[in-house]
Amino acid sequence: MSRPDRGTRAMHQTLPPALRDAVDDFAGHLSRVRNRSAHTVRAYVTDLVSLLDHAVRMGCVDLAELDLSVLRSWLARQRTTGAARTSLARRAASARAFSAWAHRAGLLPADVGAALASPRAHRELPSVLRADQAAALVEAPTRRSPPTEQAPTDPAPVGPPPMGPPLPGAGAADPPAGPTSGATEEAQAVPLRDRVLLELLYATGVRVSEACGLDVGDVDHGRRVIRVFGKGGRERSVPYGVPAQRALDDWLRRGRPAMVGARSGHALLLGARGGRLNPTTARQIVGAYAEAAGLPRTSPHGLRHSAATHLLEGGADLRAVQELLGHSSLASTQIYTHVSVERLRAAYRQAHPRA
């Protein structure tokens, strides 16, 4: 079973053996058959353990006794404890997925979750940067010192560490970087890495985990395309522009060779200790440069939102944007059409005399 939090593990151990086995088998199905990420498996397992614990408290000692009334009672209890609509919608989806699987596996006489309704999740419009703000952010590493990283960049070392002094920004114990922190090759490499990270996030709209997972061989310089492995291991090709190509060229020629170490492997983006750049550190980098540039609070996902919105505002086809972002459903991409409409309305209210 994937590693959920301590409370879920304790609750899992209190379930009857048959129910524990069902949870473990379902987790294995999600991971091996459905190819879901570890994060998704943890979320489903957490919801399922909560559901089955509630069912046991209602007197269900066998999985075959699980019915629609138990599912509805569980969701109602979640609602009374203050769960948000988005959480209720996700938990209902978890219950339906488990019910369908258990019925196919012969553990349930019927797919009792098929009739389970869930509240429509309220989707807030994502905040996006203006095009000039996004440009200012991706160019910030050329104007500002690298921000201090507040967390370790890579996992604990395996094998000998790379030679050379630690880079500025390697962690909380390191001195903050600045214009007089030393003109070493390693120190000069950090802003090159930060620039290519920001350029790729905005130019391609990839998720931060996808950007950090890129290998050197995933970049096709001739066609200006990167190969991305997204959710569920789905592969897609995403184009990027000339500014990102320049940033990549600088990083691969002058930056990466200065930071490469024993644990670098084929990773495109490296942390300060030579391993693959960690998504947590990448989020810190984006937020720190946005703050230093006086921009609204921004994350890698904010750059993804901005890229999608600017593509649609520039006339890109919705299905093309869906393909670029790696959305399995067009419904996930359609939210950006609402963002564009809201921005149009704001401009109308500001500019039209009879708005």
Q: Helical amount among residues, as a percent range?
A: 40-55%
Structural class: mainly alpha
* CATH-defined fold name of the largest domain: hpI Integrase, Chain A
> What is the gyration radius calculated from CA atoms?
24 Å
**Distance N to C terminus:** 57 Å
Mean pLDDT: 81
Low-confidence stretches: 150-183
Q: How is the biggest beta sheet arranged?
A: 3 strands, antiparallel
Query: What strand line-up does the widest sheet have?
Result: 1-2-3
Count of discrete alpha- or pi-helical segments spanning 4 or more residues: 13
CATH class of the largest domain: Mainly Alpha
Question: Number of domains in the coordinates?
Answer: 2
* CATH homology-level superfamily of the largest domain: Intergrase catalytic core
CATH architecture of the largest domain: Orthogonal Bundle
What percent strand? under 5%
What series of H and E elements makes up the topology? HHHHHHHHEEEHHHHH
Shape: globular
Provide the descriptors you would attach to this structure in a database record.
355 residues; mainly alpha; DNA polymerase, domain 1; hpI Integrase, Chain A; three-stranded antiparallel sheet; 13 helices; 3% strand
